[in-house]
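User: Before I run my own analysis I want an independent prediction to cross-check against. Here's the chain; please return only the structure tokens and, at the end, one sentence I can use as a sanity check.
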Amino acid sequence: MKTEAQHSAERDTGTLSTLNDDGSRKWLKPRVSPGRYLIKRRLFAWFLILIFTALPYITINSKPAVLLDILHREFTFFGMTFLPTDTLLLALFIVSVFITVFLMTALLGRVWCGWACPQTVYMEFVYRPIERFFTGVPGRKKNKLQAGPFGGVLKNVSYLLVSLFLAHTFLAYFVGIDSLIHWVGRSPLDHPTSFIVILFVTGMILFDFGIFREQMCIVACPYGRFQSVMLDRNSLIISYDPNRGEPRGRMRRAKKGSPTPVDLTVSAPPKEPELGDCIDCAMCVTTCPTGIDIRDGLQLECIGCAQCIDACDTIMDKVGRDRGLIRYSTQEAIDGKPTHLIRPRVIIYPLLLTLVLTLFVVVLVGKKPIDVTILREQGLPYVSNDDGSMITNNIKIKLVNRTPASTTFAVRIAGDPGASFVGTENGSLLIEADPREPVTQGVAIVTPREAFAAGKGMLEITFEIGNENLSVEQTYRLIGPRGSVSK
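Assistant: Structure tokens:
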């Protein structure tokens, strides 16, 4: 039995839970600890897997539910398509996601990591069950398949098939299910780039879940290191209660002839204090998917999966002790202090989230069916004719047609500012735009010099852009000389 000093010395080494003392990789094969949290996590994981698999097949308003078309720079979420010109919307969306993560972490700790992260969901509820089925469960006798050479081969074949399925599902989010089905039915020689992408993604998934595994959470993912600034002493975390469990020690059975079949007193020197509820069975360690000892306190490797809670509760039931030696709690509650739900960060985060989402909705509702950008051509700001009576501004009109059909837009100058397009019919500039494709048209605008006399070398005009179904307006300032024409 390790003493508290030995446990303290181990905590001070700073060695990762997946490394041996000599620096070599410690391969983890955690035990499964049945319990109420495992049942809930398994049901939730299957639900998430179903959603992830089904989303590419679901259409909303004739659009995929989720499509991240990087090639054409279109991002569709539940029937709503965002274009590269929607920079503000995308920025607000990303900021809202981060604020939500901060808020959920402040309240519920690493609930994302243990319950919803794809790394945890597929590792613990797809790949590890396959491994246990073909190669056996630690601590149990292996059957003929698991003990023979074919168990490992079948495990790797299963890994490959599952990884291929996940790679195709993952690719469907970027190219659409119709394109994916079309590619699958053709020879890889007809679409070598897509085939190479599939092979690469499949290889990365195999490497992640077959080799890298828990190292993704411990080494690669930055979330565990960020938790120190996102958590506080009132955040819900998985905690071991040292006040109840320490000093830990094993129980011993009574000798034959004892009036009771089992002596629940602990084997400790008479003068030492009575041992706590922790019997030092190490079940919480052997069941941990990242190999940590939760009794050492909050650690960045803890993903909040609650397997140690299920394991400890089972042991407590067997030895006749109350459950909850390891439980969801807060650091304040473990120290015997009241937990405060309302605190500054829990107030600030929702306020910020409400503000960002409000701005998102306002910008989204005000989004026009045409994106119009007017830019000045490179070179001189304006050009005068020989006698200086007419001023020419060379500009570029950039349109993005957000409607689903090709459209010809008419651009004209509203009102009667004296400005007109050069070389156009009926004073209108016609621009044909394909759906969601940017188109740029250069044009010259000629203006009498007198139009700039009342201003400071600038004239504000309004462009009307539209067709028979829609119309938008865009203001622009022409540049010219200051003052009137000399007599």
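Sanity check: The chain has three domains: 31-85+117-230, 237-334, 370-479.
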